[in-house]
TrEMBL record:
TM ranges: none
Keyword Coiled coil: no
SUPFAM superfamilies per UniProt: NAD(P)-binding Rossmann-fold domains
Pfam family, one: adh_short_C2
Family: Belongs to the short-chain dehydrogenases/reductases (SDR) family.
Keywords: Oxidoreductase
PROSITE patterns in the cross-refs: ADH_SHORT
GO biological process per UniProt: bile acid metabolic process
Sample GO molecular function, one term: oxidoreductase activity
Protein name: Gluconate 5-dehydrogenase
Stretches of the chain forming a coiled coil according to its record: none
Length: 257
């Protein structure tokens, strides 16, 4: 008898920022392995497109409208998800905001906006959805989406890098806190994937520098994050994995000169 390590049937996955390029691809991966997928975001049109792709992959999906930085919105989404499937087993945090503003020109309103989207949203979701998982006592998996800019930081994306370094720190802190309740907390560190959010900072010389620093000498495809997401979501596959930062970066993190 073969046991499917990656079967997520009967699990509900909440994907905040699930209407983004990378979030959407991971939503499809989880749905294709049997999870019911709650796609959470502000742009409902994009969410509906992802929901359609999840259903084409054989999963069930529903869209929920929320501002990821608003605690009341997130509490409402939790209650709506519980009304839908009665469960919340996987939380994936992938909202992202970036800017190439030079350090001395950085205004604190931009700093606050990026920190709110990239960091505060993760903390709030871990408080609200994480508390439900911990209190329920049935285990669970929280997957935060970090970045290769988290350590060491990338040039030109000062606030983004600082916010993602904090996401790694929060991931490991909560891995320790939630472990007694069998709620695992891990992060995926994607390398360079051509997503909408980073196109504005990808000048030709920037792309050249990235390729020189990526042993595989190419961008990642969004679908190449699906395996990592499904692995971390599945308790059968990664039941003893918590506090891990899993690189999916074409070797970027292993490269110096």
């Amino acid at each position: 008898m073969s046991m499917n390590l990656f079967d997520l049937t009967g699990k509900t996955a909440v994907i905040i920022g699930g209407n983004s390029t990378l979030g959407g691809a991971m939503a499809v991966g989880l749905g294709g392995h049997g999870a019911d997928v709650a796609i959470v975001g502000r742009n409902m049109e994009k969410s509906e497109e992802v929901a359609k792709r999840v259903e084409e992959a054989g999963g069930k999906a529903r869209c929920f409208s929320a501002d990821a930085t608003n605690a009341d919105d997130l509490r409402r989404v939790l209650s709506e998800v519980l009304a839908w499937t009665g469960r919340c087993d996987v939380l994936m945090n992938c909202p992202g905001m970036n800017s190439p503003t030079p350090f001395f020109e950085l205004q604190m309103d931009e700093w606050d906006a990026i920190m709110d989207v990239n960091l505060k949203s993760v903390v709030l979701a871990c408080q609200i959805f994480g508390k439900h998982m911990v209190d329920k006592g049935e285990g669970g998996s929280i997957i935060n989406i970090s970045s290769v800019s988290s350590e060491p930081p990338l040039s030109r994306v000062f606030t983004y890098s600082a916010s993602k370094a904090a996401v790694n720190n929060v991931t490991q802190f909560l891995a320790r806190e939630f472990a007694p309740a069998r709620v695992r907390v891990n992060a995926i560190i994607p390398g360079f994937f051509p997503a909408e959010q980073n196109r504005k900072i990808l000048s030709p010389d920037r792309v050249d520098a990235i390729m020189r620093h990526t042993p595989m000498n190419r961008f990642g495809e969004a679908e190449e994050l699906q395996g990592a997401a499904v692995y971390l979501a599945s308790e059968k596959a990664s039941g003893f994995v918590t506090g891990a930062l899993l690189r999916v970066d074409g070797g970027f993190g292993a490269m110096t000169i």
